[in-house]
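Interim report, section 4.2 (structural modelling).
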Amino acid sequence: MVVVMAPGATDEDVANVVARVEAMGGEAFVSKGLSRTIIGLVGDVAAFHHLNLRTLRGVADVHRISDPYKLVSRQHHAERSTVRIGPAGRQVPIGPETCTLIAGPCAVESREQMLEAAQMSRSAGAGLLRGGAFMPRTSPYAFQGLGLKGLEILADVGEATGMPVVTEVVDARDVGVVAEYADLLQVGARNMGNTGLLQAVGEAGRPVLLKRGPSATLEEWLMAAEYVAQRGNLDIVLCERGIRTFETSYRNTLDLSAVPAVQATSHLPVVVDPSHAAGRQDLVVPLARASIAVGADGVMVDVHPFPDQALCDGPQALDGTALRELATAVRRLPPALGRRTGAPDRSPA
Amino acid sequence: MVVVMAPGATDEDVANVVARVEAMGGEAFVSKGLSRTIIGLVGDVAAFHHLNLRTLRGVADVHRISDPYKLVSRQHHAERSTVRIGPAGRQVPIGPETCTLIAGPCAVESREQMLEAAQMSRSAGAGLLRGGAFMPRTSPYAFQGLGLKGLEILADVGEATGMPVVTEVVDARDVGVVAEYADLLQVGARNMGNTGLLQAVGEAGRPVLLKRGPSATLEEWLMAAEYVAQRGNLDIVLCERGIRTFETSYRNTLDLSAVPAVQATSHLPVVVDPSHAAGRQDLVVPLARASIAVGADGVMVDVHPFPDQALCDGPQALDGTALRELATAVRRLPPALGRRTGAPDRSPA
Amino acid sequence: MVVVMAPGATDEDVANVVARVEAMGGEAFVSKGLSRTIIGLVGDVAAFHHLNLRTLRGVADVHRISDPYKLVSRQHHAERSTVRIGPAGRQVPIGPETCTLIAGPCAVESREQMLEAAQMSRSAGAGLLRGGAFMPRTSPYAFQGLGLKGLEILADVGEATGMPVVTEVVDARDVGVVAEYADLLQVGARNMGNTGLLQAVGEAGRPVLLKRGPSATLEEWLMAAEYVAQRGNLDIVLCERGIRTFETSYRNTLDLSAVPAVQATSHLPVVVDPSHAAGRQDLVVPLARASIAVGADGVMVDVHPFPDQALCDGPQALDGTALRELATAVRRLPPALGRRTGAPDRSPA
Amino acid sequence: MVVVMAPGATDEDVANVVARVEAMGGEAFVSKGLSRTIIGLVGDVAAFHHLNLRTLRGVADVHRISDPYKLVSRQHHAERSTVRIGPAGRQVPIGPETCTLIAGPCAVESREQMLEAAQMSRSAGAGLLRGGAFMPRTSPYAFQGLGLKGLEILADVGEATGMPVVTEVVDARDVGVVAEYADLLQVGARNMGNTGLLQAVGEAGRPVLLKRGPSATLEEWLMAAEYVAQRGNLDIVLCERGIRTFETSYRNTLDLSAVPAVQATSHLPVVVDPSHAAGRQDLVVPLARASIAVGADGVMVDVHPFPDQALCDGPQALDGTALRELATAVRRLPPALGRRTGAPDRSPA
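Predicted structure of the assembly:
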C-alpha cells in the first residue's frame, strides 16, 4: 500500500500516518519529494484498511498495490488449473490444454426439445450439455423455467447422450436440489454479487461456473470467485459473457481482453459465452471463433432445434446450419493453437 | 409493437408475420414504404414475445412500444405515491410533498457508536435512521456486519431516538428476521437482480427501499420493483445511488437525471444516496443539495461520529461539521421548492 | 511516481530501475515489503515517462501521483478564478461568487427567431446569449448552420439586447472570423480532443468555453484546458454537458459530481449545460436547479420561441413557460447558496 | 419512421401529426391499438426530421427505422468493398478476401529506428507500414512527433522496404502535406467527430483509415465515414481500436463484436488495432489472433525494436519475439478461415 500525502501536508500529518501504521504492527517508509511525500506501507494490508487512512488530515490518496484475492490468484499457485466436470470415468476437462464446447438450449422446455438439442450439440463436438431449469428473468411476466421437472429432463438427457450437464442456480435455497442433478453449477451474471449464493455453491461439493457480472471489473469477478473458494471449493470455471456499454446493436459487448488478462492473474480456467453477449445469432459463430483464438479454455453457446419456437432467447440460438459452421471452427482452431478439443477423458479410470 | 421488415423482405415474409400474429389473436397493420415495410401489432404484447418474430425470415427489427412494467407505472396510477414508514402514530412519509432525510452509519458497530450517530442525524433533521447489520461486501475478508446483534442495537436506538429504521437484507433466508426489527427493508444495489430476494421482501409485509443496480437501466430498475409489487407489496421507495462509468475520481457517477425521469414514468417515490455514489466526503453535501433541487423525495447519507474509526466506508461518512452544513440545506431548500422536510406525522392517529 | 515491482522481481531488476531514474537526474526510494518492493521516484516526472519503466523486467505497475496539468491546477493557484466575458464596462462574470445564466437557441436561424429568443432569455435573467452559426452535426445531411451570416445576426442581437455572445467554433481555420464576432468561443464536446483547435483558440485573444467530451475523464478534460492555457490564454470556462452511458432514456447522463470535483482540483470556473445532456425538455429545469444547487458557476440552456419549428434540437429547447419556471430558480437558488446571479458588472469602469 | 402516440393522445393529436407529414409530401399510416396509437411514416425521412414530431402534443416517441447513412451502407451496395493502398503495380488490398497486417512504430523517431521496425514488420508478413509524424497527445507536454521530417523518413523507409505507408493526420490544415507522403491517411479516434478534418481527407485523393472514437456507437462511426464519402472518397477502411469502459486493467476494451456487426451493415472493410486498445504488450498477440478469427480484414500493431526506448506507447509495442509469435498466427489463421494474407498485388499491372 502506498499513501500519497497532499501538497500541503505537514510533517505532523506524515508522522500521524506513520504512527498509526506502526501501531498496527506495520512498517512505513517515507519518501519526500519536492511537492509531495509518499509513504510505502509494509505488513498486513487487510489490517491497514481499518485505519481509514484516506480520512486522515493531509492524506490525498491511498493506492493498493497487491491483489485483494488470494486463493484464486496465480501468485501462490502459478500453474493454471484444470477443472474436471462429471462422474469419475467420463469427466470432461476445462483447462489450459483443451478448449471445451458447452452447448444446449437456453431453457429446458420439454424432453423432446432437450434431446434433439443435445444430439445436435454432441454432433458439433460439445463435451458438456447446458439447459436452464430455474431461469433468472428481467421480467416477472417472462417464462421462469420448468424447475424441478426441468432438472430431471436435463439430467436424463445428459445421461442418455453421455454429456455431463450444467445448469443455473438462482437462489441459495435451491442449491441442494440443483446439486443433485447438475454436474456443474452455474451462477449467473446478475447473481455474481449475491454473496449468500456464492457461499452456498462453495459448500455444495460441485464445480461452479461463475459468470462475470455485466458491469463487473475483473477484480470484482475474481473477488466473487474468492467467496466460493473461501468455502473450500476451488473447482471454479470463470465465464466471460459480455459487459454493458453504450452500444445498442448487440445486447452486451463481449470483452475478449478479459480472457488473457484474467488468465495472467488467476489460475482458474476461463470460458466465453458469445450467445448471451451478442443476443443475435449472426454474431455468435464469429465471436466463438474469436474466443477460441484469444485462448479461452472453452466456449458455451445456445442451441435450439427450432429457434423460432424457443421460450427464451430464440434470436440468439444457433440452429443446425450455424452449429455445423461452429463445429468446423471447434475442430480446426484449437489444434492450430496447440490445444485439443475438450471431451470426456479417455484415460483408464 | 412494431415489426420492421428488411429491405429485401418478400410479400410472403410479410404475410407470414401477419399470419402468426393473427393466430395469436392479435391484429397486424401493414404500412408499405418505398424501401421498407413496417407492421404495427395490436393485442397481447406478452404473447407476441413468444412468437420470436426476430427469428423470422425478412424481419429486420422488432420495437417494443409500451412499458413492460404495469403495477409500478403511472399509466394506470397517475398520481405519485407516498410510502409511510414506521409504526402507526409516528410514521414518516416519503412522497411528493416532502423531502425526507435518512441518515446513519454505514454499519452498526456498537451501541455507543449507533446512539451517537443517531443523535447527530436527528439534530440534522433526519426522519429515518439507517445502519447496516448484514453487510454485502466485495471482499470475503471485509467486515461483514454484526448480524442479529446489529439489528437489535439498531431497533433499540431507533426506538430511543424516535426514528423508524432502515437496514439492508442481503439474503432471502434472512428476510423474516430482518423484518422483525426493521421498518424499511433495503435491497442493495448488487442485489437488484436477485429475484428470489425481491420476491421474499415483496411478501414480508414491510415497505421496501430498492436501490438501483450500478449498471441498471431505468427500465430494469422498474422491472425489479415490479417483482416486489407482483407479490402484493406496493410500498416501494426507489433509491438512486450512482452508476458505474469510466470516471475514477469518484466511486460511482450519481445519475440525477434518473430522478425526474423515473418520477415521470412511475408513481413510486425516489430518494438519492450521494454517499455511496461519491465514496468521498467532500462531494456528499453538494450532491445532497443537488438531489433536493432536482426533486428527489428524500436523501440518504452516511454519518459517523468518528469517520477515521469507521469499520466500513469511513472516507464517505459525514462528520458533525459536514452534517450541520447538510442540515442547513435540508431546512432551506425543500421550502424554496414547495415541499416540507419529511418528519413523523403529526396528524392525530 | 511509484514503481511497483512484481512478486518475482530480483534485486537486479530493482537496481536497474534505480539506475535509470538516477541517470535521468531523479531520486529513487526503495521500500521492500514481504512479497513486493515499491520504489518512490522524486524529480522530473515528465522525464520519467520517457524511461518506459513499465517495459522493464520485474516491473508490475507504475502509478502516477501528481496531476499532469499545471497551469489550470489549483496547486499553484489556490484561489478559484473568475472569467469576465464581453467588452469593458459591461462584462459578465463567471466565477465563484456568481451563478450566470447563458441562454439562447441551439442554432441561429433568422434575425427574428434570434431576437425573440434573446428577449426571452434576457427576461429570464440570462447574462450571456448563445447561438450556433457553425454547427457540428453527426450527420452530413443535417442543418450545418448559417455560417458567417449567423455570426452577424448573433452579434447584432447580442448588441441590441445588451448581452455578450457565445458561439461554437468547429474548425481551427474559422477561429479568426468567429473571434471577430463572439465574446466567448465555445469548443464543443466532440472537439475536446482536437488539439489543433484548442491551440488556435488559445491564441485568439478571447475567453474560451470548453465542453467536456462525452466520454472524457476529468483529467483528460483538464488536459484539454491545459492545451489552451499553454498558448497563453487562462480565460477558460469549463462546461459539463453529460457523459455517455448505457442509459437510453436521455441523450447523455449529466455528471454533476464533476462540478465540485473539478472545482476542488482546478481554479477554472465550471458551468453546466443540462439541455444537451438531457435532450428532452422535461428534464432541463430540474437539472438546471440541481446544477445551481451543486455549486455550478453558471448554467447554459437551449431556448426557442417555437420549439416545434427549430432547425436543431427542438425537443430539448425551453419554451416560454418552462423558461419562466427556470427564471424563478435562477432568482431564488443562488442567494440561498450565498451567490448572486451573474449579470453585467455594475462597478464603475 | 414510426411515431408512437402517448396513451392519452387525442384524435386531434393524431390528426395533427398526419397533417404535418402530409404537408411535407409524406404518407402516414395510422394503427390504433387498445392503449396506444402508432403512425407509420413513408416518404422523405430527412424532411420528417425538420417536423420536430417529438415536440408535438400527444407524441410519446419517434423511432427511426432505416439507417441514416447511405453511401457506406450495404443497402444499395451489397458486395463488400476492397480498398487498394499504394502506387499502381504494388498495391496492397484490404478487403473480404485478404487479412492484411499493418505494422510499425507508434511514432517515427529516427531513420534507424524506422528502418529496423520496418524490416521486423516486413519479416512478420506486414503489407503496410505505419508510423506517426503528427502525434495527437492527451498532454501538451508529451512528444508531439517529428512532423514533416517524420513524414520524409516514413516515406523513404516505406519505399526502401517495399511497403505503402499509413500515418495520422490530426489537423485539416495538414492534409495536403501528409497526402504527399502517405499512401493511406489515418484519422485518429479522438478526431472521429472532427467534421472539418473528415471533409478534408474526403477531398485529398488518398484512401482513408478511419478509427472508431473511443465512445462512438457503430452508427456514429459510419456517419463519420459518410462525411468522408460525401466528398467523393469511398476508399475508406474502418479501424476498431477499443472503446472506453469501466475496466482499468487495459487501456480500452476491444470490441470485436463490432467487426461482424459493421460488416453486416456497411460494405467498407474493417481492420482492428489491438495495440492501442490494450495498451499492454502481453494482450496484443492473443487479441490479434482473435481479430483474425472474428473476420477482420486486417490487423494493425505497434512494433518497436527497443520498446523500452520508445518515445510513445512503449509498453504496448511488440518486440522481435512477440512479433514472431504474431507472424505465425498471420500465416496460419487466415487460410484456416478461407482468406489469404494481404500483400502487394502480384497481378500484371
